[in-house]
Each structure stands twice: as structure tokens, then as C-alpha cells.
């Protein structure tokens, strides 16, 4: 496996997100990110390695905060972390594998999609109360308004696993 690169703090302004300065270049084992100015679309690809989970969590939290969606941060970060962990644990077989994260937010819905190189679809399973793993999809299902899978983009391999959260008006 590729050694972990130092994780930088999450960007705090739209300008830091737009210029990509908070993300190391791909040549150095870092993430590739796309953040379109003033849009509510964010995409990044990171090595399929457990050490990258913190970076993924920070980027989700930072974007939702910048988009004015603090009420969704906790659920979105936890569900994203579960899907990223599943992708690393069950879908990554090559040290060069990556997991792509896509955040898309409309006025009504946040959709988070993770794409990995394995065509094997995730399956929720019954878990013994003493088991230390196996609850990821159950957690996603409990937190999300909806979740599912999609085929990969044309010419790509693997699958996409996604969940959505309703964007609610502040009360």
C-alpha cells in the first residue's frame, strides 16, 4: 500500500476549496478534487486506504458547512464514512485503487455518492449483537432518506453507492 500522505486541515472558505491548495497533487498520492465555484457540487478521488477516511470526513463536513447545511453534517459524515470504509474493506484489491466521492446538493436534497472499482453490490446483513463489524449499511439506511446503487459511468468499472438526505428549511 502507498504510505499515507499528511492530511491537511479542511478548507474554511470557498476560495480555499476553489483553488485546490488544501489538497496535494495526484502525483504525490493525494486526492484529486473538483469544486465548482458557487455551485453545490463537489467531487474528489482518494486512495482506497483507511488513512484517507479522515480527509473524506473533513471534506464532507467543510462543504456542507460552506453550503449552509450544518444540520446535515453529522448524518452525512457518518453515512459517508460507513460507505467509504465499506469501499476500502470490500472493494479495494489493488494499492492503486481509488474511491471517488461526489456531493450534489439541490434545494431539496443532498446526494452523496461513492464509486469504487468492485462490481460486487453491497448487501445488508443480519449482525450478531456482539459482532464488531457489519453494521455499515444498516447505519446508512437508518440515517438516510434513501440509498442505493448505480452502475459505473460509461467506460468505468465498479459501482456507485449513494445515499440522500432531505434539505429541510431551518426552523
TrEMBL record:
Superkingdom classification of source: Bacteria
Source organism of the structure: Streptomyces ipomoeae 91-03
Ranges where the Histidine kinase/HSP90-like ATPase domain occurs: 47-149
InterPro entries according to UniProt: Anti-sigma-factor_SerPK, HATPase_C_sf, HATPase_dom
Any matching Pfam family: HATPase_c_2
GO molecular function, one term: protein serine/threonine kinase activity
Gene3D superfamilies in alphabetical order: Histidine kinase-like ATPase, C-terminal domain
Keywords noted in UniProt: Kinase, Serine/threonine-protein kinase, Transferase
This protein's record includes keyword Kinase: yes
Disordered as annotated region, ranges: 1-25
Keyword Transferase: yes
Record protein name field: ATPase/histidine kinase/DNA gyrase B/HSP90 domain protein
Amino acid at each position: 500500500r502507498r504510505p499515507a500522505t499528511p492530511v491537511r486541515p479542511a478548507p474554511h472558505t470557498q476560495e480555499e476549496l476553489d483553488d485546490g491548495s488544501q489538497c496535494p497533487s495526484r502525483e504525490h498520492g493525494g486526492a484529486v478534487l473538483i469544486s465548482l465555484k458557487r455551485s453545490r457540487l463537489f467531487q474528489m478521488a482518494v486512495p482506497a486506504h483507511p488513512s484517507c477516511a479522515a480527509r473524506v470526513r473533513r471534506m464532507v463536513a467543510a462543504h456542507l458547512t460552506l453550503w449552509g447545511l450544518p444540520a446535515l453534517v453529522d448524518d452525512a459524515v457518518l453515512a459517508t464514512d460507513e460507505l467509504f470504509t465499506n469501499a476500502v474493506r470490500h472493494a479495494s484489491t489493488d494499492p492503486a485503487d481509488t474511491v471517488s466521492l461526489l456531493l450534489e446538493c439541490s434545494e431539496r436534497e443532498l446526494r452523496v455518492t461513492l464509486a469504487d472499482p468492485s462490481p460486487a453490490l453491497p448487501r445488508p446483513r443480519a449482525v450478531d449483537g456482539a459482532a464488531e463489524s457489519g453494521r455499515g449499511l444498516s447505519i446508512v439506511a437508518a440515517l438516510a432518506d434513501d440509498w442505493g446503487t448505480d452502475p459505473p459511468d460509461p467506460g468505468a468499472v465498479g459501482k456507485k453507492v449513494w445515499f440522500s438526505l432531505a434539505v429541510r428549511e431551518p426552523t
